[in-house]
Amino acid sequence: MQCGNRVIQRGITCNLQVFFTNEGKGWGLRTLDGLPKGAFICELVGEVLTSSELHERKAKNSKHVDQVLLDASWGSEGVLRDEEALCVDPTFYGNVGRFVNHRCYDANLVIIPVEVETPDRHYYHLALFTAKKIEAFEELTRDYGIDFDGTDDLNKAFDCMCGSKYCRGGPNNSKD
Ligand SMILES: C[S@@+](CC[C@H](N)C(=O)[O-])C[C@H]1O[C@@H](n2cnc3c(N)ncnc32)[C@H](O)[C@@H]1O
């Protein structure tokens, strides 16, 4: 794995392409070159919201499905309350990271929270790295961590078309 902070400061260095997927997932992101395991792809950028604000957005519009917990309790003493825990929501503002689609369990990217220098060490940059060797033109995916079978209806925003043999959210996986 490349050293997080410095790699992120250099920005995106691989050839990425936004493309329209054939499987009903809308736009996706792929690499034009082969990549080794541990390569930095891009940051996941978006609006920083408290988890309460995000919950309100999700209640009004189920499109806010791809949000990532930014800090929770890892940089602080103890557990944060909902209104203090921060999330990144790339729905309205973001970078190419917002085109990375979900894949159940065997996605080829992982999100690594990278510490940046702030006085309270409360904020992280969310960096996407390859979790395995990736071939040229392969779609880049990450596991959103959605509980498709959960009781939280706010999280059932789409039928998963990831194609993984471990898929937990396809139209035929519903327990309803
Ligand atoms: C962060 S966006 C990813 C980019 C999106 N495909 C687009 O066209 O803008 C997340 C949305 O993409 C779609 N999506 C992502 N992964 C999917 C999957 N495995 N199956 C079906 N739809 C997916 C869902 O509509 C989801 O709400």
UniProtKB/TrEMBL annotation:
Residues 156-172 form the Post-SET domain. GO terms for biological process: methylation. Residues 14-145 form the SET domain. This is Histone-lysine N-methyltransferase. InterPro entries: Post-SET_dom (IPR003616), SET_dom (IPR001214), SET_dom_sf (IPR046341). Keywords: Methyltransferase, S-adenosyl-L-methionine, Transferase. The lineage of its organism: Eukaryota, Viridiplantae, Streptophyta, Embryophyta, Tracheophyta. SUPFAM superfamilies: SET domain. One of its GO terms (molecular function) is methyltransferase activity. It comes from Triticum turgidum subsp. durum.
